[in-house]
């Protein structure tokens, strides 16, 4: 395996993901535990991540010395490069210019990291994000690439197989980055590249068995892909120790409860408790306008329901959820790190502290498209695996302003028409996620010979690969016109339809 030492970068998981894409197994350890992990089982290679700290301060994290002594290849990225330089005899100082965003590197020499990708004399786009910079490299190293603000943009000690890059090869904005990581994992570290999602599935099953032992587990099903994949995975891992609970929160889309119940009971033969808690949720949500409050209420109501269901089956020690990596990174704020809470994804930041079940989250390291691959691996039907994501807090976060039952019903009907038209136009699979939002604003219109004064419905559709960044979908105007007139004609309460053309960032995909 390749060991990734995490210095707290927002994108450390992307390194792991790129390594997985090369068919190589990797493990991430926080820098504090890296020494122990190296001692326990020496990896075939080490990658040092970026991080928010400054190597110029004595108190900040360092790489475990052992990483450089084992004789295995090391790829040190950004903060990792600076730490490696500082630890092996080079020097780092704070730069006058922060280099942030797109930059270009000039390749000075060929090296194994660039093999077949970049050649001496070429110039290539990369993504930089650093304040400090290396000003002297340790003995044995050579400069293999430079940039305007980083004379040591890439360095190598080919004899010891130590490589450092100031830029981030793991992000999409370094277009050749994945291939550089591939070179490191396969050519330099010599990994075979045979690791697959099937292997992940076996490891995940083994980990779940180890974590839960003989205890009972409750799995909350939302009807989305993530929780369904978790349910099927757990069913395979622990059979009838698992109870799946599908909670009708009253903020689901039209037809959703029926679909989920029939899929699990009839198709997969997984026992399912169908709990209609619509009134409980809506009573608590009614009149609430603040998005974070909505998320917290939904999170804690879910737990109340799960705890009641756990009692009914004589107690469950664990709650399984389909938490994905982007949910984790956007909800968690690392101490001293650059990552701040964007929104409390209900299954991470939205959970109440008083909860007395431990969490089982086998997808916590994965990105959405990887979960889909895992779903296919587990035999979930393609049209189910390729469903658009649907957030746990459901329609409640697509209804800006105070929640009420009437507006919720209007939204549900508009959403159904919008998705129906998307399917009819054959666009469903080209879009990452599409949904309607009902604004708490009424505008004047004229319908027939009457004045109308009704709500505005906004339509959202985005493309994305992992939900971390997204762009609006460029529908043609005829399509938008068709959806607009159907919604206005068929849904009482809406007299105006608008289309959201915001990307993420600066927007998020959901409106709340
Ligand atoms: P945002 O709105 O943060 O959404 O750009 C990124 C993706 O995550 C989904 N999302 C959630 N999923 N619980 C979930 O299970 C949540 O609380 C939650 N909030 C957002 C969103 O639909 C999009 O696919």
From TrEMBL:
InterPro entries tied to this protein: Class_I_gatase-like, GATASE, GMP_synth_C, GMP_synth_GATase, GMP_synthase, GMPS_ATP_PPase_dom, NAD/GMP_synthase, Rossmann-like_a/b/a_fold
Gene3D superfamilies: 3.30.300.10, 3.40.50.880, HUPs
Pathway entry: Purine metabolism; GMP biosynthesis; GMP from XMP (L-Gln route): step 1/1
ATP-binding is among the record's keywords: yes
Active site positions, chain numbering: 78, 168, 170
Keyword vocabulary terms for this entry: ATP-binding, Glutamine amidotransferase, GMP biosynthesis, Ligase, Nucleotide-binding, Purine biosynthesis
GO (cellular component) term, any one: cytosol
CDD domains: GATase1_GMP_Synthase, GMP_synthase_C
Binding site for ATP: 222-228
Pfam families, sorted: GATase, GMP_synt_C, NAD_synthase
Enzyme Commission number(s): 6.3.5.2
GO molecular function, one term: GMP synthase activity
Domain GMPS ATP-PPase: 195-387
Enzyme class: ligase
Keyword Nuclease in record: no
Role this protein plays: Catalyzes the synthesis of GMP from XMP.
Subunit structure, interactors included: Homodimer.
Listed name of the protein: GMP synthase [glutamine-hydrolyzing]
Gene field: guaA
């Amino acid at each position: 395996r390749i060991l990734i030492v995490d210095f707290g970068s927002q994108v450390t998981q992307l390194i792991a993901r790129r390594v997985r894409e090369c068919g190589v197994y990797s493990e991430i350890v926080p820098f504090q535990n890296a020494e122990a992990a190296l001692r326990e089982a020496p990896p075939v290679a080490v990658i040092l991540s970026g991080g928010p700290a400054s190597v110029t301060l004595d108190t900040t994290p360092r790489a475990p010395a052992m990483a450089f002594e084992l004789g295995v290849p090391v790829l040190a990225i950004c903060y990792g490069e600076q730490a490696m330089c500082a630890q092996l005899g080079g020097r780092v100082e704070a730069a006058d210019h922060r280099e942030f965003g797109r930059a270009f590197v000039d390749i000075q020499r060929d090296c194994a990291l660039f093999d077949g990708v970049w050649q001496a004399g070429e110039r290539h786009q990369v993504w930089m994000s650093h304040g400090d910079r290396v000003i002297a490299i340790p003995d044995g190293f050579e400069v293999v690439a430079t940039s305007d603000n980083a004379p040591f943009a890439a360095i190598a000690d080919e004899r010891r197989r130590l490589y450092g890059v100031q830029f981030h090869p793991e992000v999409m904005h370094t277009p050749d980055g994945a291939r550089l990581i591939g070179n490191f994992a396969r050519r330099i570290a010599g990994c075979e590249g045979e690791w697959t999602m099937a292997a992940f599935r076996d490891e995940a099953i083994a980990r779940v068995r180890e974590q839960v032992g003989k205890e009972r587990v409750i799995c909350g099903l939302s009807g989305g892909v993530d929780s369904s994949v978790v349910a099927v995975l757990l069913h395979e891992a622990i059979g009838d120790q698992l109870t799946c609970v599908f909670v009708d929160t009253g903020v689901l889309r039209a037809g959703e409860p029926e679909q989920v119940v029939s899929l699990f009971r009839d198709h997969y033969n997984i026992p399912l408790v169908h709990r209609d808690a619509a009134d409980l949720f809506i009573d608590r949500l009614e009149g609430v306008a603040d998005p974070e409050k909505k998320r917290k209420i939904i999170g804690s109501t879910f737990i109340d329901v799960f705890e009641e269901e756990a009692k009914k089956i004589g107690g469950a020690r664990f709650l399984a959820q389909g938490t994905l990596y982007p949910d984790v990174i956007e909800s968690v704020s690392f101490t001293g790190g650059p990552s701040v809470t964007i929104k409390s994804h209900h299954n991470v930041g939205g959970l109440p502290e008083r909860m007395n079940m431990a969490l089982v989250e086998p997808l916590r390291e994965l990105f959405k498209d990887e979960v889909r691959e895992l779903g296919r691996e587990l035999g979930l039907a393609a049209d189910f695996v390729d469903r658009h994501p649907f957030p746990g807090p459901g329609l409640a976060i697509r209804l800006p302003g105070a929640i009420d039952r009437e507006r919720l019903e209007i939204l549900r009907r508009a959403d159904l028409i919008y998705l129906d038209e998307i399917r009819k136009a054959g666009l469903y699979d080209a879009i990452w996620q599409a949904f309607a939002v009902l604004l708490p604003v009424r505008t004047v219109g004229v319908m027939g010979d009457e004045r109308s004064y009704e709500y505005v419905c906004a339509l959202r559709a985005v493309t994305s690969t992992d939900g971390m960044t997204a762009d609006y979908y460029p529908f043609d105007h005829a399509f938008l016109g068709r959806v607009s007139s159907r919604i206005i004609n068929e849904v009482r309460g809406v007299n105006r339809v608008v289309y959201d053309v915001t990307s993420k960032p600066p927007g998020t995909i959901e409106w709340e």
